[in-house]
Amino acid sequence: MVGCMGRWEPNALERLQEAAMALFLEYGYDRTTVSEIAARAKLTERTFFRYFTDKREVLFSGSEQLEKLVVDGITTAPKSMAPLDAVVAGLEATAPMFEQRRAHARERQGLIAAHTELHERELIKLARLTSAMAACLRERGVPQNTANLVAEIGIVLFKSAFERWVNGSKKHDLAHYVHATRVDLRLVVTGSSAKSSSTTPRKRARSPGRPGSASTA
Amino acid sequence: MVGCMGRWEPNALERLQEAAMALFLEYGYDRTTVSEIAARAKLTERTFFRYFTDKREVLFSGSEQLEKLVVDGITTAPKSMAPLDAVVAGLEATAPMFEQRRAHARERQGLIAAHTELHERELIKLARLTSAMAACLRERGVPQNTANLVAEIGIVLFKSAFERWVNGSKKHDLAHYVHATRVDLRLVVTGSSAKSSSTTPRKRARSPGRPGSASTA
Q1: Helix, strand or coil for residue A185?
Q2: A101 and chain B: CB distance < 8 Å anywhere?
Q3: Model-level pTM?
Q4: B residues 140-199 closer than 8 Å to A (CB)
Q5: Overall fold of domain B62-215
Q6: CATH topology of domain B2-58
Q7: ipTM score here?
Q8: pLDDT digit string (tens) for A11-20?
Q9: Residues of chain B neighbouring A190 (CB-CB closer than 8 A)
Q10: Any idea where the domains of chain B sit in the sequence?
């Protein structure tokens, strides 16, 4: 086996990720071992564990880069931006990271949907991203309750946009879907049904409310 | 030990839950075993596993009842209600289930926040609730993308409202906080900052948009 212990290996991270994905798709996630992933990448198990804490983690190594992009995007958004728009700017800033990775993202989503342990890991990662976003908003002077709520909404927006991008046409990047989902979100929350929607009647049971007119409680 | 195998035990579920919570608070979640929980409840381990698949589950046995209340609330909401308002009606319908349980809920939240494995389980339970809500909305004729988005927003609303209720004054029930969070959600999504908020400037980077006026994308 190539790759003796402790030696620095070029592109080890990428090689391990590619090997893992190839094996997961060929033999199934459950039937692939860390040792097989390392062997396929022509690296040792020890090298694997230098990069990843466990088998699941090989599918989540992008989460730190993702968080950095979102956090930087929120931090550098103009101070005049409303909290949710700053979050949207942060989310849109992640689009380049996913460019050229749509096929990989689709395969990865399929694996996550099919395995509870991967789904759990993803939810924990998203919960961490939520906390990081909320912390950024608090630094922008947004009070804690609002910061948490906006961060949670941001994650919903991101998940929905990502889902649409993964299954969408090649013409549009992730930022396009983030923007489109932001539009739908506004429609859904202000009380009317989202575009292209409604086979249900449009009559509203409550008054739609305008910014500033809603009663505090 | 009282409680021989296979015998029906009155209130076994509640006794196991109470015993578990008492031990978790006294000795810590990690240091409490299933066998100790059963012993404290004067039941056998076998009885424990008739009710719960593992130690974590003893904190989540209410999730089916919760789902039923939400689903019934959405299903019986007037057909004229916008999707998110039907979801809000479903969430408000859960308030009686939590009445008198605020102290328990607060202790439980503390445990979940402190233990990743409990946090993971909670996130999976909420993901299931999200799917159930989305399915209800689709039955009301809401298209899939919108149904998923509204269900996710509903969960954010519920989590935020629950957090506020757990830490809030005794005067108000959970339904009150669901309603209050719904108001904040509207403010946050239409672009202005939520009430009592803003130390940040209010000037908006984007036009706030009115129901029906937002462009589709």
Answers
A1: helix
A2: no
A3: 0.79
A4: 140-143, 145-146, 148-150, 152-153, 156, 159-160, 163-164, 176, 179-181, 183-199
A5: Tetracycline Repressor; domain 2 (1.10.357)
A6: Arc Repressor Mutant, subunit A (1.10.10)
A7: 0.76
A8: 999 999 999 9
A9: 186, 189-190, 209-211
A10: 2-58, 62-215
